[in-house]
Amino acid sequence: MSRSDDNHRSPYPNCYLSPAHWYAFSLSIVAVVSSPPALGACPIDWTPGRGFPGVQGTVYAMTNWDPDGPGPEPEVVIVGGEISVAGGAMTDMTAVWDGMKWRSFGEGWFGYTNRLKVCGNRLMAAGDFTDAEGGRHGFVEWSGTNWQPIGNALGYGMSVVEFEGRILAGGYAVTGDLTTPVAELVNGQWQPFGPPMAPNSYVIDFFIRGEELIIIGEFAAGSARNIARWSGSDWEPLSDFDGDPLGTYLCIAEFDGDLFCGGAFPPTGGNSSPGIVRWDGNLWHVME
Predict the structure, then answer these.
(1) Which segments of 9-120 does DSSP mark as H helices, in order?
(2) Can you give the pLDDT at residue 27?
(3) Cα dist. 276→176, 212, 247, 248, 288 in Å?
(4) Where are the domains of the chain?
């Protein structure tokens, strides 16, 4: 074979490789590439992984909390919902952010958290919880080392609040009675708060406006529907003139003296269904 045969020409100048040389050279490359490394040169070991970033799952509630009040411990952030992992650690219901990392918060409890509230310096949670023995609870409180059930709540917890020195719970059939969506903690047990409401009523949240207590949800309490304020002995509508807007009230806030309520409300004046309505103290307004 002549040197003019380019099929076997070396990439290096003035270097000719015969077919036999090319074949041997190819086998040596395959051997080098396919040979496993010597075990002694590459020790095998397990190292910690980085885990999942943040909190895995759906977070429904969040609050800051100072575990020891005026003491030296820093404030932390507590989150709750339907969560399974926090910063690489398995958890359920709740997790804590200490300013540096996420950690699990509580052991032996299962379920999900709808609301987290600090009442005084007591950290409380409302939701649907199951303890290690299988008992179900609507409200729990942090004892310093783990969650503990509050009272005898048999229903479904949606919120909790401190009002005028009382601890109030809102939800569905809080005491087991379908007409009791609001209850008060008395001597460690939940008692109905206010007159009975229509069966299957439920309260989603509380809102304190000055000295006024307001509840929202889906309920019928006398002439009040889905939003009401506490008169001291009964639940009454905010508007005495034309009634409060019908609809589903999901959240409430105050801005510049007015109340803003978010949810789903019927169309007004041929417009699409508003998502927010505003109460100025006298009249309701649809937010443009």
Answers:
(1) 19-34
(2) 46
(3) 32, 21, 11, 11, 9
(4) 6-41, 55-286
Ramachandran area for residue 39 (φ above 0: left; ψ -120 to 50: alpha; else beta): alpha
10-residue averages of pLDDT along the chain (288 residues): 44 46 46 49 58 81 90 91 87 90 89 93 94 92 93 88 95 92 94 95 95 95 94 91 81 94 80 83 84
What local confidence, expressed as pLDDT, does residue 269 receive?
A: 62
Copy the structure tokens of residue 132: 């290690």
**Distance separating alpha carbons of residues 258 and 18, to the nearest angstrom:** 93
- Rounded Cα distance between 227 and 151, Å, is 26
Task: Determine the pLDDT at residue 52.
Answer: 61
CB 277 within 8 A of CB 285: yes
In whole angstroms, give the CA distance from residue 279 to residue 258.
Answer: 6
Residues 231, 31: Cα–Cα separation, whole Å: 89
Does the structural domain 55-286 have CATH classification 2.120.10?
A: yes
Q: Which amino acid is at 205?
A: D
Question: Is the pTM above the cut of 0.70?
Answer: yes
- Backbone torsion region of residue 154, taken as left when φ is above 0, otherwise alpha when ψ lies between -120 and 50, otherwise beta: alpha
Q: Could you tell me if 235 and 229 are in contact, meaning their C-beta atoms sit under 8 angstroms apart?
A: yes
Q: What is the pLDDT at residue 51?
A: 55
List the one residue out of 99, 127, 102 whose CA is nearest residue 115. 127
Backbone phi, psi, residue 256, to 5°: 55, 40
Q: Side chain identity at 45, as an amino acid letter?
A: D
Considering only CA atoms, which of 162, 223, 168 is closest in space to residue 190?
A: 168
CB 240 within 8 A of CB 248: no
Helix (H) / strand (E) containing 184: strand 182-186
